[in-house]
């Protein structure tokens, strides 16, 4: 009888220690995730998206943007935080107060365009409405990345804090050449945030991703092209046109 009681006590202690260890590891993992996203318990965050050109006052978004928002909403919920969805032209706050996830192309998304101009002056996006080989291309520093619709498309995934210190809430940008690429970037973040947190900590980074053959694979096949943080933050020098006047 004594042996049985001792075995029960030992089993109980082992179970309690195992539960304590699992709880500790889970809590540490959650804390790292919350720190990376700037989302402590019950924090508020913004999901900023394009407003479809419907002509009405209602917020209507594309199918791919809806999928992107679902990916991000799951991450926010896992952190024990809350999200508010707002249209790009209704987000009127600065950055650093609440974590922000900004999704879309800068042409229809004013908020994205403002973030690129303020925080990533080394990035230019060709928004020419006329067809041409450079339409939709990214210029990052001296490198150009052209759009091949359905075959090879690019998207920027960035975590930015605007040099406001560790207490500032980050801004996450998902700036893609097409809607399917922004969904691909949010999925990439969802699948790789632990690895990104280990590599970059809670600092700024800008990654260039390539979505391969989206016409066949949708947003699922994504390649990391390069870490373009330095180039994206360095202003592109203005090109001074040559004097075309002829001397008399």
From TrEMBL:
Transmembrane segments: 6-25
Alphabetic keyword roster: Membrane, Transmembrane, Transmembrane helix
Protein name, as recorded: Secreted protein
């Amino acid at each position: 009888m004594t042996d049985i009681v001792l075995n029960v006590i030992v089993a109980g202690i082992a179970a309690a220690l195992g539960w304590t260890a699992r709880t500790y590891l889970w809590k540490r993992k959650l804390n790292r995730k919350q720190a990376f996203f700037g989302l402590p318990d019950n924090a508020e965050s913004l999901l900023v998206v394009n407003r479809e050109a419907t002509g009405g006052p209602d917020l209507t978004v594309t199918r791919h943007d809806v999928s992107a928002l679902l990916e991000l909403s799951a991450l926010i919920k896992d952190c024990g935080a809350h999200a508010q969805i707002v249209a790009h032209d209704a987000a009127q706050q600065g950055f650093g107060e609440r974590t922000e996830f900004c999704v879309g192309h800068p042409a229809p998304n004013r908020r994205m365009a403002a973030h690129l101009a303020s925080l990533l002056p080394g990035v230019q996006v060709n928004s020419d409405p006329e067809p041409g080989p450079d339409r939709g291309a990214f210029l990052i520093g001296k490198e150009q990345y052209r759009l091949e619709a359905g075959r090879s498309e690019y998207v920027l995934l960035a975590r930015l804090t605007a040099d406001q210190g560790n207490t500032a809430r980050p801004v996450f940008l998902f700036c893609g050449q097409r809607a399917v690429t922004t969904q691909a970037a949010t999925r990439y973040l969802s699948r790789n945030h632990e690895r990104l947190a280990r590599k970059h900590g809670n600092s700024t980074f800008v990654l260039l991703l390539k979505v391969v053959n989206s016409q066949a694979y949708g947003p699922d096949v994504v390649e990391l092209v390069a870490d373009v943080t330095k180039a994206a933050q360095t202003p592109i020098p203005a090109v001074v046109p040559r004097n075309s006047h002829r001397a008399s």
